[in-house]
Records
---
Amino acid sequence: MIDYNEFKNRLLRLKETLERVQKIDGSLADDPEKHRNFAKEIEIDYTDLKTIYESSELNLMIEYYTFSEQLVKELVFSILTVESSNDNKHLEKFLKNSFRRNKYSPRSRFEDIKKDVLDKYIQTNDKKLIFLLFNTDGDFTKIHDSLIKARHKYAHNSIRPDFSISEYVERSLPSLDFLLNEFINIESNLESRLSLQKLILDSDTMKSQLDKLNIRSPYYKNKLKDFKNNLKSIMNYQSQLECTSSVYNEIFEQSKKYQTLDLRLSNNTLKARLEEIKFVLRKKE
């Protein structure tokens, strides 16, 4: 099993590291003279001191990458029971030889996790398992993937990223939180997680149809009623699944908002209320 508390604590430590790097960056930008004097005081060149500061930001990127890679590794080891006793000793030997903890290094970009882990190892009975990227934009996955790729370039070619590491890590911490939340649900309650996915996909389709449907249509309120019933079903999973990330919380918060729609209101009012609430599931990583 993935040790949720361990990874949650590591995520908190990553945030603390980020805050320290941001304090250094802020102090260096606001009062560089203070740091020049500090360099003189400890008898090193100011350029060398700045290099030390920059290395702390590079270490932040490495810490982010390590968290991501090890989280994916723990999911794989857990779902395949690599380190658990198995009735089939031949299978047990195969797994332990194929997935050596000190050698197995999974790729951890969103698209790679989808292809290398979700599609390859998780049995879903022909149901396609996708990330519940609910009400997120492209940056939610893009920035995470950029950090992972930047770490590879730095590790293999000593090429430093052309973006602010601290800014990217700050913007991408919710992505790590989301992955941890997703992995816990996939590992411990896959059937409920798949059922929730189907309901959200259906609701997303219904919402798109409602947005396009003329409010004068005699079917408008019936369609809206079906949509609300679907959202009611979504709410049932709030108690069945872990909801520790902002994305999962958003799923249930938005579903709850839609449930408050009073069908006795005029179609014009209902249409306006619908447009105020965002309900979009991004289908691609």
Note: The radius of gyration is 24 Å.
---
Amino acid sequence: MITSIFVMLIIIQFIIGLLFAFNVVGRNEFLMGFYDAINRLLEPVLRPIRNLMPNTGAIDFSPLVVIILLQIILIVLRNIIMSV
């Protein structure tokens, strides 16, 4: 449940970031505040991944890496629990 919420926050952050980058939506106060709050929640997790990855320019792959790592951890934990 918590991991699903975390993944959804990462996806929402990615989508809002794209909307801002391509000027699809204006930078109104509510959306900027919401985006800022999501960034503050996710930055402690994404920053170490960003530091490990090479610079790819404008595209940030760290959210994708975090989602993949979360899924791998969940699969491993499920297999451990099922084998007990």
Note: The chain has a mean pLDDT of 91.
